[in-house]
């Protein structure tokens, strides 16, 4: 039996060339057709609903209110707080919330930054030799000029308490210039690493853009 030959490469090439204009025409007509179709109120409503459902913020929703309250208090963009939280502990999913160099809590404060660098034991990287009870004592923190905050008024400023940690980070970033728009300077002050600055800025801009997309989807310009 004689083996049948398949379509030659040259024939396939010619078929693609001949079909290409047809494909482009169909594509253009589809775009034009969709533009006309979305003018129909029911279709327009469906398209807007679909757009809203696909625009999402890459931040755990349960933390956003805390970020925003801290922003109201200290003037630091809540999206910047979210970016720091993401970089420091992946939104508090790091276990334990203690780094090898001694940074503690949800936003990874060195004890001397949280309690105050004027504490007698502070120096070097800032781990210090601060008694545990003093680390969370607002009076001790005030005495030594630290950035720890008792945000929920429970008598303790605790880096392992999420609300205290977020407010403390906002306090520190505000004092470092973030409340005045000096975002990069504030990030660098939080961690003296250019790579760290790049990483935080990446997520800060990502969240800022996502917020704008959501606002555009839900509140389109008239």
UniProtKB/TrEMBL annotation:
<keyword id="KW-0812">Transmembrane</keyword>
<feature type="domain" description="Transglycosylase SLT">
    <location>
        <begin position="143"/>
        <end position="180"/>
    </location>
</feature>
<dbReference type="InterPro" id="IPR023346">
    <property type="entry name" value="Lysozyme-like_dom_sf"/>
</dbReference>
<protein>
    <submittedName>
        <fullName>Lytic transglycosylase domain-containing protein</fullName>
    </submittedName>
</protein>
<keyword id="KW-1133">Transmembrane helix</keyword>
<keyword id="KW-0472">Membrane</keyword>
<feature type="transmembrane region" description="Helical">
    <location>
        <begin position="12"/>
        <end position="34"/>
    </location>
</feature>
<dbReference type="Pfam" id="PF13406">
    <property type="entry name" value="SLT_2"/>
</dbReference>
<dbReference type="InterPro" id="IPR031304">
    <property type="entry name" value="SLT_2"/>
</dbReference>
């Amino acid at each position: 039996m004689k083996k049948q030959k398949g379509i030659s490469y040259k024939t396939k090439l010619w078929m693609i060339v001949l079909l290409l204009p047809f494909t482009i025409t169909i594509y253009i007509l589809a775009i034009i057709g969709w533009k006309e179709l979305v003018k129909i109120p029911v279709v327009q409503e469906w398209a807007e609903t679909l757009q809203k459902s696909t625009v999402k913020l890459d931040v755990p929703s349960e933390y956003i209110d805390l970020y925003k309250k801290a922003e109201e208090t200290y003037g630091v963009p809540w999206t910047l707080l979210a970016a720091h939280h993401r970089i420091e502990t992946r939104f508090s999913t790091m276990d334990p919330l203690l780094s090898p160099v001694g940074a503690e809590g949800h936003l990874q404060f060195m004890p001397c930054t949280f309690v105050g660098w004027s504490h007698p034991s502070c120096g070097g990287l800032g781990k210090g030799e601060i008694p545990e009870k003093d680390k969370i004592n607002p009076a001790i923190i005030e005495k030594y000029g630290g950035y720890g905050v008792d945000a929920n008024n429970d008598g303790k400023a605790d880096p392992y308490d999420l609300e205290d940690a977020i407010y403390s980070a906002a306090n520190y970033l505000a004092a470092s210039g973030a409340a005045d728009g000096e975002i990069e300077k504030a990030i660098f002050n939080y961690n003296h690493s250019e790579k760290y600055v790049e990483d935080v800025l990446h997520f800060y801009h990502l969240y800022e853009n996502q917020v704008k997309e959501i606002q555009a989807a839900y509140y389109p310009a008239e």
